[in-house]
Amino acid sequence: MATSRYQTAEMRRQVGSPRPKTRDTKDTLCRNVVIYGHCRYQEQGCAFSHDPNKGNSNSHQQDSSKKALNVESPSFTPSTLQTTNSTNKKPTFSSQAVTAPSFTPRGLGAATPSTLPDSEAQVFNPAAIREFTPGFDLSSSTTTPANGTSQDGTVGYDVFNMPSQNLATTPFNPYAEDHSAITGAPSTYFQPQNAFTAPLQPLQHHLYAPIGPYREDLMPYHRLTHDFFVPEKLREELQKKSEAAMQVLPNSQLPQLDSYHSLVPLDTTHRKNANTFGYPSWVYKATSSKNGNLYCLRRLEGFRLTNEHAIRSVKEWKRVENANVVRIHDAFTTRAFGDSSLIFVQDYHPLSKTLAEVHLTPSAAHAGTGRFQPKTPIAESVLWGYITQIASGLKSIHSNNLAARCLDPSKIILTDKNRIRLSACSVLDVVQFDIRRPIQDLQQDDLQQFGRTMLCLATSTPPQQLTNVSAAMEQMNRTYSPEMRDTITWLLTPPAPHKSIDEFIQGIATHIVSAFDQSQHRADTLNSELFRELENGRIARLLMKLGTINERQEFENDRAWSENGERYMLKLFRDYVFHQVDSNGNPVIDVGHMLRCLNKLDAGIDERICLTSRDEQTSFVVSYKELKKQLLSAFNELMKAAKPGRSF
Ligand SMILES: Nc1ncnc2c1ncn2[C@@H]1O[C@H](COP(=O)(O)OP(=O)(O)OP(=O)(O)O)[C@@H](O)[C@H]1O
Fold first, then answer.
1. C-alpha pair distances (Å), 148 with each of 22, 56, 414
2. What contacts 457, CB < 8 A, 6 or more positions away?
3. Which of 25, 125, 179, 207 has the fewest CB atoms within 10 Å of its CB?
4. Of all protein residues, whose CA lies closest to atom 8 belonging to ligand 1?
5. Which residues form a coiled coil (predicted)?
6. Which residues of the chain have pLDDT under 70?
């Protein structure tokens, strides 16, 4: 049983119920005296008793039958709470705790089921949560009845006709919290809000926006965590990639280059292979000393630069910005490896593999023999995806008056599911700079190499073993559609005056459209994951703020700072969120409860909760809105004393 959660539910039911009128208020201790030590309205006609000793016995007697303070306590006025908060600097709760009416959580507990999540927590259903009033600060209305009756009350205006320009035009950054507003200084950023203006602060919601696409295959017991966090598979994938990106080699023998350090080899074999470039090539991950970013360095061993202009040709490749071409940043020569090496600096794509590694690697039985074991044929849709992406890369390269010159399954990398990039363009432009060939010829070669690469992939044949093209075409016909055969045949036919990448793209237009659709779907899915992270990011920042306050050993020579005044409430809030126990005293670990409470605190909604002192002698009814103010006020105190220039 989670005792305080039961109280919250009880209070929710009480929200909106009429206040008792028949009670003799003179004998009732004012609620503000109990919580804040004094009542601002004492001199303005507040009908309740302000003598704590008198009130103690009376309220104790009265309320002991009700077991806990609650929103129906006659003297409790939210508007007063709000004002009192800002004027009453250090209310000492511990002294009032003695006079507070008794609170008996155990009695309430009997009615609470001991199962962890309540029904609201089990299935994420925004529609079922009644107190969600997106964006309208009803409590600040002067006509709003006391004790938060507005929460479930009817909204007396047409929410669909609210002015929307504020939300649309305000460039809002929720993380740039305006701390000056909390300390009483007028905020120039947010204008005053009331019930009849649209809110200027969009964070007045505490729910995760359930924006699709949705996963339909989740069992109810999966839902809580899956609904709040990145899906397991994606998280694992991203974490592996970030692990690979952060990998370092202890005791590495690799040299440090002028601008790059912490080199990690990416080659999966130690085989010296000079087939592609005429020089053995090695690939490393490296960290730039200039900006700390990671790059991929391709080194051509033993290359001697004879023509200064050769290396400058790389400059032209900087213009190629295509999602299917690995970006090239720089090229230079170095003697750091003990030879004369040529280095190309490219974007680094963690855990990428070449198409040859993925589709043409020899099986274990043939490993080391150089023979490739045919693998299961690539699905036709995947092959069309590759064709579309290579065509897009080539289109961009050819439009820049360049040629890829290196279309080979071992030089095309797979950086994500079915996502490929041409990885070694520009290398031959430098290496074969002196053998100048017309760019048109090189572009025609690109198309033919494109055809050969696709044939290799369609027949699972490594390029060096593709000696009989017509036999390979035959083999391909057995697995793939005639359209695929025609496409590859077109690419392989000898150059013709009008043969160009543009013509090719027109020919495969329908496949480009489906690839485009798939890519949009993927973007939608990732976008919806991003929405979750947006909310989780809010929680992380909130937890950091709470962490700076809760249990702080000392502040401004006050060893009890984190225990006093508004900080005491925050301590009790921490207990309420994280330290709940069931009727047997066992911890209640309920992610849904924690997330819900933190989201509500971040949004500062009007819902009230009952916080109970650790000795269970005192309970405080407080709204998330008030708690948020207390949190920001305490945090603001810390920020003021912190070193200037540190931002949060
Ligand atoms: N830009 C890059 N970012 C991250 N990894 C890359 C990048 N380019 C290549 N790699 C990886 O580096 C490894 C080596 O690439 P390389 O082009 O040398 O292939 P290879 O199979 O070793 O070919 P070769 O036998 O011709 O050397 C491959 O696993 C490849 O996925």
1. 21, 25, 57
2. 355, 359, 360, 378, 383, 386, 409
3. 125
4. 423
5. 510-548
6. 1-26, 34-37, 52-228, 362-374, 645-648
Q: Is residue 495 domain-resident?
A: yes
The answer to whether residue 127 is domain-embedded is no
CATH of the domain at 266: 1.10.510.10
In this structure, the dihedral spanned by the alpha carbons of residues 584, 590, 593 and 594, taken in order and rounded to 10 degrees, is: 110
Residue 340 and residue 475 in one domain:
yes
pLDDT at res. 224: 57
Q: Are residues 357 and 481 in the same domain?
A: yes
Pair 595, 539: CB distance under 8 Å = yes
Q: Of 352, 353, 422, which is best to mutate to test ligand 1, by the most ligand atoms within 8 angstroms of its C-beta?
A: 352
State whether 499 and 373 are in the same domain.
Answer: yes
We report the CATH number of the domain holding residue 567 as 1.10.287.3700
**pLDDT in the model for residue 270:** 81
Phi, psi of 509 (to 5 degrees): -50, -45
Q: Are residues 475 and 613 in the same domain?
A: no
The pLDDT, as a whole number, for residue 323 is 96
Question: pTM of this prediction?
Answer: 0.64
Domain end marker among 507, 538, 568: 507
pLDDT tens-place string over residues 183-231: 333 333 334 444 444 444 445 555 555 566 666 666 666 655 566 677 8
Q: Is 534 annotated as a binding residue?
A: no
Task: State the pLDDT at residue 395.
Answer: 98
Q: Which of 423, 427, 428 has the most ligand 1 atoms within 8 A of CB, as the residue to mutate?
A: 423
Tell me the C-alpha distance between 454 and 472, whole Å.
11
pLDDT of residue 53: 62
Closest-lying ligand 1 atom to the alpha carbon of residue 277: 26
C-alpha 367/C-alpha 257 separation (Å) is 34
Predicted pLDDT of residue 217: 66
548, 554, 560, 563: CA torsion to nearest 10:
10
Residues 306 and 251 in one domain: yes
Whether 431 contacts 303, CB under 8 Å: yes
Tell me the backbone φ, ψ of residue 341, rounded to 5 degrees. Answer: -120, 150
Q: What span, in angstroms and rounded, lies between the C-alpha atoms of 321 and 254?
A: 31
